[in-house]
Amino acid sequence: MDQRLSLVTLGVRDVAVAAAFYESVGFERRHDLGSIVFLPTTGTALALYGWEALAADTGLPTHGEGFRGVTLAMNLDSVSEVDRVFAAWVAAGATTVRAPVAKEWGGHSGYVADPDGHLWEIAYNPSQVLMRIDENGRLHLRTR
Q1: pTM of the prediction?
Q2: In the chain, how many domains are there?
Q3: Do 55 and 81 belong together in one domain?
Q4: What contacts 13, CB < 8 A, 6 or more positions away?
Q5: Is residue 52 part of a domain?
Q6: pLDDT at site 94
Q7: According to the model, what pLDDT value does residue 103 have?
Q8: Which of 7, 8, 51, 129 has an alpha carbon within 20 to 30 A of 70's alpha carbon?
Q9: Which residue range forms the structural domain that includes residue 78?
Q10: What are the counts of helices (DSSP H) followed by strands (DSSP E) for the chain?
Q11: Which burial class, exposed, middle or buried, applies to 8 when counting CB atoms under 10 A from its CB (0-12, 13-18, 19+)?
């Protein structure tokens, strides 16, 4: 079977507010159907869907705060780009979870939470051992 990650759907309190936030940090609102918005990325697409509706679709309760066991990551091309993008997200309304710092593995990363609490790591990884990001922003994992 071909392994794919086609769409990441975030449950949000207000689809219009969430879409405006993501647009303000550079995402393109490609399809806005009112109850769901689709934003393309380099590989997969990001969808914003009402929190209650998404919970109902899964059959799970809507409550739950704090760490949810998931982070999204945006790998960038330099330390300065991490700092610039991180500041832009905070200026757009994201909450600083952990400011960017030099990491023991040689990279530089920090975490923000979007207005609905979804965690994003904004990172630079200089290593080419396990992965590389091509000129189009696509992540390639190296084979062993």
Answers
A1: 0.83
A2: 2
A3: no
A4: 50, 51, 115, 116
A5: yes
A6: 97
A7: 92
A8: 129
A9: 66-133
A10: 3, 10
A11: middle
